[in-house]
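Lecture 7 notes: from sequence to structure.
We start with the chain below.
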Amino acid sequence: MLNAANAVSRKLVISIYCALILTASACAQDLPQAKPESVGLSSDRLERIATTVQRNIDDKRIAGAVTLVYRRGKVVWFKPQGMMDRETAKPMRPDAMFRICSMTKPITSVAVMMLYEEGRFLLEDPVSKYLPEFKNPKVLVKPATGEPYSIPATHELTIRDLLRHTSGLTYHWNSDLGPLYVKANVAHGLLPYDGTIEDNVKRLAAVPLLFNPGDRWEYSLGVDVLGRLVEVVSGKPLDEFFRTRIFEPLGMKDTYFYPPDNKLDRLATAYTYYADKGLNRFPDTPITEGSTSYSADYPYHGPKKLFAGGAGLVSTTADYLRFCQMMLDEGKTGNTRLLSRKSVELMTHDQLGKIGPDQGFGLGFGVDGVKAPLSELGTPGEFNWGGFFYTGFSIDPKEQMIVIFMAQLHPTGALTLDRQVHELAYQAIND
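Predicted structure tokens for the same chain:
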């Protein structure tokens, strides 16, 4: 009986392995590939990515990950490791789907700039010109004693403010405005929500701003507002605009707000890491930290009506590469152009100047090495961003290089693996 069971088990493992090989082969055929040495990278040194990722899997810091390195038009590293689901021993697939959260923001920003290029608005236009609920904004005042109150803002927030996060909006984790967002039933996209982006933006507009627009940088729900702007200006729901104007032209076949049921088995399981508890499957109920609550089931539970332009998408490593390729190729893919070269240039140059942190920020992208020296390996002008559930990407025009890291973990326990993968890609340059 035991030998028979072992034989069945071996057959199951072999069948799973063969299925993964076939899937990887299909993914490989769909992406332009080359040996690392042909584009100035070292195969041996790229293997350090696999070693480091595997060490973190063995140490039970993550369940699994997919890493990708692209240079000079070719994929030279594309590797799934570990498990999509530890509890069911489900291996990580090359076409695994991930909650990319704030990596939705660059896509929404591209949608905005596409409409900008059609002459629909100027970046300095007040948002209220298209979303009247933002007319006459107010700013929160918290006195040393007594109850908070609000006063009229010195001026209105602009589309440019939303793109560069200087609007005066914030997120639920802000101790001053977070509780007011919760009270007003404002969504952030990481919980099932019984409402549309229109409902959500109107609720958000009724809450005071944190500061006068343009005064400083504050990462915010502003990109969700931009998602609603896309709907109003284009006359299309945000998911339809994404699908017809961005995803289909780029060949992004696995990127959705709400994946279809026949693809949900490819959604990687989310995990948490706490120093005293270790790595565990994300709980069935939301996690609450201060005034912020979040879950991992929002892509498949609930009414599925909210298209959160700042956080809502699910995607694959290969799909997101196609988006990054478009940005690296100055707005075009093959013979199809989504954006002009000049728009990409504007989006990927620092728009903050003396406002805000040492981190440069363009229109939808962080920009490294332009306001302060690089802290790690990289290139000044490289642009990038990441997501709440531990995903990230970087695009380097000078080196013609893209690095993508995909896992599913939050809280991360201060893990730096995503950044290490980036540095390990750069130390492999040998030209």
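Points to note: The chain has a mean pLDDT of 93. Residues 1-30 form one domain.
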